[in-house]
Amino acid sequence: MDKIVIEGGTPLNGTVKMSGAKNAVLPILAATLLTQGRNIIKGVPKVRDVATMIKLLEDLGAKLESYSNEKIVIDTSKADNPEAPYDLVSTMRASCLVLGPLLARLGKARVSLPGGCAIGERPIDLHIKGLEAMGAKITLEQGYVQGKADRLKGIQFYFDTVSVTGTANLIMAAVLAEGETILENAAKEPEVVFLADILNQVGAKISGHGTDIITIQGTSSLKPIECTIFPDRIETGTFMIAAAITKGDVTIENCNPQHVEPITLKLQEAQADVEISKNKIRVKGKDIIDSVNAKTHPYPGFPTDIQAQFMALMTLAQGQSIIVETVFENRFMHVAELKRMGADISLDGHTAIIKGVKSLSGAPLMATDLRASASLVLAAVAAKGQSIISRVYHIDRGYVGIEKKLSKLGAQIRRIK
Ligand code: EPZ
């Protein structure tokens, strides 16, 4: 298994280009099952989760015609296998995104229940409840969700918890259903808005996306998808924090400043300089980092996917900061590792109390989940001395060549096999 070796303490300087948004491309790939033909998706980040989703689509009968230079051409005309196997789904929870499209396309689906993961149990009860309300007969057997539906029917459905992939799944089920579907307390993430916009481009009739209430008029068929994925807002936030934590001066190109407003605000509160232009953000870190409180919320609130990275910054802030994680029940896996580097953090349920320290010291570290690993990388580039991070496959799920991008900014970082 690969490891990443980091000699910390170098301020990061220069420019870095963001890659496409992983969490935008996964639902789009699942949505290709709603079409019969050649789908073309550009701006695709080369990360493990994308490779996993492509493998899953091929198992369902889709044909990958090409995948190079961030462009995927995948033909779904012969995608007629309704079964998503355990060995794939268990490695990526987002595989559950094929449930809605399979029921819409084939009237049947057999998708392994996603295992829990490090950050929490992450059930898909709301996905199932919504699909059952649309007329699917769903049973859970041998760890598989088994669904059957002649034709899904439009419904009015209320999400009692905002769910990003839950909203995406029900949108995809509803676009080919009979009649009108209204989704209430829907997710407003840019990745959901993008999915709805692209589906509208190929014949769907969706409105209200980006607000709490999304309305979908079912239609009979969709044309193949052609689209370009927008830049990853979580990668953007991660590099913004990298500039602040190393007191560097970094210009982030190919990004969407509007998608990272909550992060910009928090960094400005922490006294970093953040300059916004059309598709660039320049972040200059300061010698003194002010402590800032943060509470995670669904979009447009402060993103849970940035919580761990922001906590790394707060470990070096002046004074005490409080971070509350409201979305997942166990998303503090990075805390123990940060404390091994000398951070002063105490946990009380969903609340972390961070007392800033003068410096962190490098240490051997273990990655546990995607964003916790990013947090450890940020802490390590800012720490004094060497860190060796193992289980970096977690980080490869969602970041394209993070060590290459950081070393281009001057970080002393390398990957060892
Ligand atoms: C998406 O996960 C993202 N993944 C996650 O990013 C992100 O952290 C999360 O949204 C929140 O923003 C993808 O888009 C592929 P949820 P998702 O359904 O959709 C509970 C990363 O780092 N819930 O919005 O799985 C759930 O347990 C990943 O890229 C139910 O109880 O998250 C959680 O506490 C990590 N029942 C909360 O809702 C359900 O049926 C939000 O989950 C569904 C969700």
Describe the protein's topology.
Layout: E1 3-7, E2 13-17, H1 22-31, E3 38-42, H2 48-59, E4 63-68, E5 71-75, E6 83-84, H3 86-89, H4 99-106, E7 108-112, H5 125-133, E8 137-141, E9 144-148, E10 156-158, H6 164-174, E11 180-184, H7 190-201, E12 205-207, E13 213-217, E14 226-228, H8 233-245, E15 249-253, H9 261-269, E16 273-277, E17 280-284, E18 294-295, H10 304-314, E19 320-324, H11 333-340, E20 344-348, E21 351-355, E22 364-366, H12 370-382, E23 386-390, H13 393-396, H14 402-408, E24 412-416
Parallel strand pairs: 2-15, 3-14, 6-7, 10-11, 18-19, 22-23
Antiparallel strand pairs: 1-23, 1-24, 3-5, 4-5, 7-9, 8-9, 11-13, 12-13, 15-17, 16-17, 19-21, 20-21
Helix pairs in contact: 1-2, 1-7, 4-6, 5-6, 6-7, 8-10, 8-12, 10-12, 11-12
Bound molecules: ligand EPZ.
The site of ligand EPZ has 23 residues, from α1, α5, α6, α10 and α12.
